[in-house]
Amino acid sequence: MMDGPLAENDGNAIIASYDWSALSAELDAYGCAVLPNLLDPAACRDLASLYAQEQGFRSRVVMGRHGFGRGEYKYWAYPLPAPVQALRSGLYPRLAVIANRWNQRLGLEVRYPGTHADFLALCHETGQGRPTPLLLQYGPGDYNCLHQDLYGEKVFPLQVAVLLSEPGRDFTGGEFVITEQRPRLQSRAEVVPLRQGDAVIFAVQHRPVAGSRGTYRVTLRHGVSRVRSGHRHTLGIIFHDAL
């Protein structure tokens, strides 16, 4: 198991350095926001290199076999690699504040606890005990269909994807895409430009939007456009565990 270059304290310091008021406003307005340089190039390369290993993963999914697109990904097993665990536990408290505010705006009673360990305990009480952080690999012609990562009753409404490869050097194409469907309107697409080490925070399923008659809920889906050349690796951080 890789200890990695990102210790938990280092990860917390990086996470604390972002302007979370501005990020919260971006998420309110668009359903997504970028964390520039969340991981350095060495950390990105170390994580991407793990894809070739069998140890440490609980399953491998070939997207084409399930109609998910083309490409593949692996779910990590517990214990997670130290950098992944540091990001998952460090990002969660910041995102829980936003998630709770969104639920309040939507009139939902669900509130998320302040620590990720406490939230996972709630997941495990309902039988959701399988870890969901994953490592994705795309080659030429691969893509990820628009989808939502829902794994059971307990769903945390925000997740994070970190680009581990460098666009233009390691691959071309392969843009992160998020779409939003508002009632009685056509879908809106957002293409999020990322560099190696950048992360995008985005809504898993819904987000609140202010309308003329109050706040209403819009539906979001995310995916990856076709990779035109090279290979693209991504770290996915989902905060709820799976059934």
UniProtKB/TrEMBL annotation:
One Pfam family cited in the UniProt record for this chain: Oxygenase-NA
One of the record's GO molecular function terms: oxidoreductase activity
Keyword annotations of the record: Iron, Metal-binding, Oxidoreductase
InterPro entries in UniProt: DUF2086, Oxoglu/Fe-dep_dioxygenase_dom
Domain Fe2OG dioxygenase: 129-242
Family: Belongs to the iron/ascorbate-dependent oxidoreductase family.
UniProt protein name: Fe2OG dioxygenase domain-containing protein
Biological source species: Nitrospirillum iridis
Organism phylogeny: Bacteria, Pseudomonadati, Pseudomonadota, Alphaproteobacteria, Rhodospirillales
